[in-house]
Design brief:
This protein has four helices and five strands; from the N terminus they run E-H-E-E-H-E-H-E-H. The protein is an alpha/beta fold.
């Protein structure tokens, strides 16, 4: 679980209008164990979770954070049309985003 107050402070969520203050969100980086809330699509050398977003979106995912790249942006653009109620936000590096979130959470 992650507090929405933490996400609201992050630049990636400045444009998000649907985060409700004083609430908790489930948080996941694994499509196999996703529960309603936020999904962080980790991009690595051999694996790109953006390729598997459809599986969490079909379960009602409300928020997606992914690594900004031409390839990922193209894939997400198509998903945004189909899943218009989901907030998609790009970050320079999904792993660095997770590290920043962990640092804020630990304070």
């Amino acid at each position: 679980m992650i507090k929405t107050e933490l996400l609201i402070t992050m630049p990636e969520f400045k444009k998000c209008q649907t985060l409700k203050p004083n609430s908790d969100l489930n948080f996941s980086t694994d499509t196999r164990h996703y529960k309603d809330g936020l999904f962080l699509a980790i991009t690595g050398e051999k694996y790109n979770a953006v390729d598997y977003l459809e599986s969490v979106l079909s379960k009602g995912c409300q928020y997606v954070v992914y690594t900004n790249s031409a390839s990922n942006n193209e894939k997400v653009k198509k998903l945004e049309i189909k899943y218009s109620k989901t907030f998609f936000t790009a970050t320079d590096d999904s792993v660095a985003f997770l590290q920043r979130l962990a640092t804020i959470h630990a304070k």
